[in-house]
C-alpha cells in the first residue's frame, strides 16, 4: 500500500525516533509499504518519520542509481560503492563517520522541489538490525553512505536543509512556507501539516 509522505512542517520530522523490537505491530507489512511508497515517489531512501512513524527504521536503494546510470558517467567518475545496495535498516546508530566531507546536490520527498548542495562524510559505519532483527556493524561509502546519512538524519529529527547556511535557508523560506501550507503540487501522495 502506498502511504502518504509527511511534508515539511509536520512535528514528527523533528522528533528523535525510538528503537523497536520484533514485537512491533505489522512490521513486515510496514516495511513492504515503505518500499512501495518509496518507489512510487521515485525516491532512493525513505525513513519511518516520513510516513508518520517515530521509529528508527529506514530503507535505502542505491542500486537503482547505478542501474540507471549510463556507462559514460560511470567511466568519468569513480563510484566506490557501485553496484549499490537495497536494504532495510532497523535501530540504526552511527558508530563513526570517516573521510573528507564531499558535496552532492540533495533533495527530499518531504521537502519537494527544493534541492541544495550538502556536505557529508565519505563513509559511515553503522550498527543496525536487518528486517529479521539480525545485528550488523558495517561501513558504507560513496553515494550509498550519503543516502544512509540523509535517512539517518530523519530518524534523529534532522532534515537536509539543516546542513545549509542561514543565508540559503532565508532564500528558500518562501518555498518552505508554501510546503507547510500545502501550496505545492507533487506526483505522489503527501500529508501536509494542519493549516
Number of helices: 6
Total strands: the figure is 7
* Helix content class: 25-40%
Q: Which fold name is given in CATH as the topology?
A: Peptide Deformylase
Outline, from the CA principal axes? globular
What is the CATH C level class, in words? Answer: Alpha Beta
Question: What's the number of domains?
Answer: 1
Low-confidence stretches: none
Order of helices and strands: EHEEHHEEEHHHE
Indicate the radius of gyration in whole angstroms: 16 Å
Helix-strand blueprint:
Layout: E1 5-6, H1 27-40, E2 45-47, E3 57-61, H2 63-68, H3 71-76, E4 86-108, E5 111-129, E6 135-141, H4 142-155, H5 166-171, H6 173-181, E7 190-191
Parallel strand pairs: 1-7
Antiparallel strand pairs: 2-3, 3-4, 4-5, 5-6
